[in-house]
Specification:
CATH superfamily: Potassium Channel Kv1.1, Chain A
Helix content: 40-55%
Shape: globular
CATH class: Alpha Beta
Order of helices and strands: HHEEHHEHH
Number of helices: 6
Number of domains: 1
Length: about 110
């Protein structure tokens, strides 16, 4: 019975951690026209520059939210977004896109990537 009592007394935050995450609510647009789906709270939490872009008022509330990251290889943008989610970057990605990732970390104020 103790085990059942512990389950019934679980905190809402503990059970909420098992809820599925909502789907992406924003897209990153690359120079190649690729749209990378993302979650605005994660982008805002990891980059103050992206946070400012996300919080800007939109002309049309119903319009799709898109952040263009242009002038950088599509795969480098993809690696950058993956880093924002995981705080990790694969060694091969650093080798291939290091200079691009360094530039993105500077532009979007992500010092953990420098």
């Amino acid at each position: 019975m103790e085990h059942t009592d512990n389950i019934n007394n679980s905190t809402p935050s503990a059970s909420a951690s098992h809820l599925p995450e909502p789907g992406p609510d924003i897209h990153i647009l690359t120079s190649a026209g690729i749209r990378i789906p993302a979650h605005s709270p994660i982008l805002a939490m990891t980059s103050p520059v992206l946070e400012n872009i996300i919080e800007r008022p939109r002309k049309h509330r119903s319009s799709e939210r898109v952040i263009p990251i242009l002038g950088v290889l599509c795969d480098a943008v993809s690696a950058f977004v993956a880093f924002l989610y995981s705080s990790r970057c694969e060694e091969d990605q650093l080798g291939k896109y290091g200079i691009h990732l360094l530039a993105l970390s500077h532009v979007y104020s992500v010092p953990q990537l420098k």
